[in-house]
Specification:
Elements: H1 2-33, H2 40-61, H3 63-76, E1 80-83, H4 93-104, E2 111-114
Parallel strand pairs: 1-2
Length: 125
């Protein structure tokens, strides 16, 4: 009786392993065709185009107000830093480096405008 159970179990395991081996090439081929980011450059370009489109639409909707506010800000300050984030919390490494450089040079007053919080600014010319 014990020998029969062991034989059945062995045949089931052999059948399962044969099934897995036959399905494996198809699974690996499917995994090879798919990737997490099909093309990171295209994905980044799409994000950038979406940001530009959003910024231009917002600027066109409030063109007079944005232009007046930015013109006043640029005339009243000698140094205006357009950055991602704020001086206290930069959101990118280039923004952080710009803040460090201007802080070490003791540029006072340092006026910074967060372009991510105000996307209409990117449409300003």
């Amino acid at each position: 009786m014990l020998a029969t159970i062991v034989a059945r179990r062995a045949s089931v395991l052999c059948a399962r392993s044969a099934l897995v081996r036959s399905a494996a090439p198809a699974a690996f081929a499917t995994a090879a065709r798919r990737s997490f980011a099909s093309n990171p450059i295209e994905a980044t370009a799409k994000l950038y185009e979406d940001l530009v489109d959003k910024s231009v639409k917002e600027f066109q909707a409030n063109q007079k107000e944005v232009s007046d506010n930015l013109d006043a800000e640029l005339k009243s300050n000698k140094v205006v830093l357009f950055m991602e984030g704020t001086v206290d919390a930069p959101k990118s490494e280039p923004s952080m480096n710009a803040v460090k450089i201007l802080t070490q040079a003791q540029v006072v007053p340092l006026t910074a405008i967060d372009v991510l919080a105000h996307p209409a600014i990117l449409g300003y010319t």
